[in-house]
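Tokens in:
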């Protein structure tokens, strides 16, 4: 398959539905102005957190065997996230790019540029390049890397570099232990390890969990401030680190530690290439940081992802 034929297939199979879901979410309040946007987003996010996402995590964990190859994904993406965080810190705190910005803005851009939307946008891309079982890479990356680092290092950046206070900083383990997706994953993993996997239950939970990505992308479309997407240097710089620098870092780390690279390492590159995570907006609101900057980063990185992914394919970082 040539690059252009693969790119065309990617645009139709992955980018088209992603665009439609995000676009419909953005247009919904315009065509239905009586929609209580904040309330609708809160309701849908709760359905994802308490029903859809736990179901898909249980389904995947109960049928996936742990291997060194699988664990290389969170390891490599974690390396990419940490190095990207250092780059973003230097850009926003030590160069002219961050001059004149408040610490509340700089801190949330560092966090937003470190972690990607690795499940909701990563999964469709992974399935395209590999197969339906590639969802396991996104699941293990989210559970073993994204969630622990976001609620530890990410929160530390928000409180110490942004809010300059330890007040209200939650304990990472307390947060983790109150999240239904974590318990669903642990339960599914336990069933798999004990040989108790029950195919009908796996299929049922997998069916319910299929709503996770469409609902989340619809909410993403409602969240992005479409009318205020002004191209600011600090926003585009953070998006550039997330979309271009981070996948390159992950690829270089994979080439260093894994030779030859296999499917899991290329999956890590996909995960590293995803746009900024929606959780950045939640962190901004929770710790009184710059919510507008977080929303702009999410919006711009999501839009520019449509250009950066073909670029990453063209230079051979994905196969």
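Residues out:
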């Amino acid at each position: 398959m040539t690059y252009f034929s693969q790119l065309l297939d990617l645009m139709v199979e992955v980018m088209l539905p992603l665009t439609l879901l995000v676009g419909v979410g953005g247009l919904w309040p315009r065509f239905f102005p009586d929609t209580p946007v904040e309330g609708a987003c809160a309701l849908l996010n709760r359905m994802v957190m308490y029903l859809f996402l736990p179901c898909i995590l249980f389904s995947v964990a109960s049928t996936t065997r742990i291997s060194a190859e699988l664990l290389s994904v969170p390891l490599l993406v974690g390396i990419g996230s940490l190095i990207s965080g250092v780059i973003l810190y230097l850009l926003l705190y030590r160069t002219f790019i961050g001059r004149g910005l408040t610490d509340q803005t700089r801190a949330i851009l560092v966090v937003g540029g470190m972690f990607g939307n690795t499940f909701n946008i990563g999964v469709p891309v992974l399935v395209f390049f590999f197969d339906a079982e590639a969802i396991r890479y996104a699941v293990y990356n989210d559970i073993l890397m994204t969630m622990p680092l976001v609620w530890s290092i990410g929160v530390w950046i928000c409180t110490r570099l942004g809010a300059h206070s330890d007040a209200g900083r939650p304990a990472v383990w307390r947060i983790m232990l109150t999240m239904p997706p974590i318990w669903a994953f642990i339960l599914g993993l336990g069933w798999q390890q004990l040989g108790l996997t029950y195919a009908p239950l796996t299929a049922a939970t997998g069916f319910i969990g299929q709503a996770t990505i469409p609902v989340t992308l619809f909410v993403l479309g409602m969240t992005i401030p479409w009318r205020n997407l002004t191209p600011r240097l600090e926003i585009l710089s953070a998006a550039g680190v997330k979309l271009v620098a981070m996948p390159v870092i992950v690829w270089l780390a994979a080439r260093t530690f894994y030779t030859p690279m296999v499917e899991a390492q290329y999956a890590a590159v996909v995960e590293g290439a995803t746009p900024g995570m929606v959780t950045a907006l939640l962190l901004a609101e929770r710790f009184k940081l710059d919510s507008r900057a977080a929303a702009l980063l999410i919006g711009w990185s999501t839009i520019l992802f449509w250009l950066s992914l073909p670029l990453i394919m063209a230079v051979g970082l994905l196969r």
